[in-house]
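REVIEWER CHECKLIST
Item 1: Sequence provided? yes
Item 2: Single chain? yes
Item 3: Sequence as submitted:
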Amino acid sequence: MGGRVLVVQHEADCPPAWIGDWLVEAGCVLDVRHPYRGDALPSDLQSHEALLVLGGAMGANDDETCPWLATTKDLVRVAAETTVPTLGVCLGHQLAAVALGGEVGPNPHGSQLGLVPMGWTEAAARDELTRGLTATRFGVHWNNDIVLRAPDDTVVLATSPGGELQVARFAPGIWGVQLHPEVDERILETWAEDDRERYDEGVLEDVLRKVASAREALVVGWRPLAQALAGLNRPVA
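Item 4: Structure as written out by the authors:
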């Protein structure tokens, strides 16, 4: 287990957080890049055993305002071609979908916010990344956009109650989760500050309270995701 993981972080308040800690626990070394503040992204993954693409407030198609998104999508395509295990989280999930031929846009049912039940499929119990997760009952969502059309040959691993794609394997070795397995209420507090004008104050406070109360269950439920990803790292030639 272990290996060097390239982490693409899109904003200062969207760190790898729990999932980063869990990967380090599993023996990984994190190479965290901050392209929004000028860090370069590599053109290939020859020096990395895995790729982790985090979330952010921008959209998956905002390449003009966030030019590193195009490079990130290129990296996902490289990972798919070279079988480098890859996990996209929220925006990263959406970027992976777009990179491989899917479509992303606003959720027609509205925003997903807070603890959302997991709708695991039968395929999840057989998948090498998610088979240890199917007892996990909920995850933290904080999103407006979703994958509207998945890439060809996508394996659906979980759906939200409204039918939205929640967890998927987009290609061999390429996974995405619409939820945020990495966050706790302290990170969400920073996001809530930015969203005060969009949501009722009582709604945000209720979300933060429920996430704080679910802290232990979230750790127990989602640590196996990072452990499984660490176990998939392919050797560097």
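Item 5: Key structural point noted by reviewer: The domain at 3-232 is CATH 3.40.50.880 (Rossmann fold).
Item 6: Recommendation: ____
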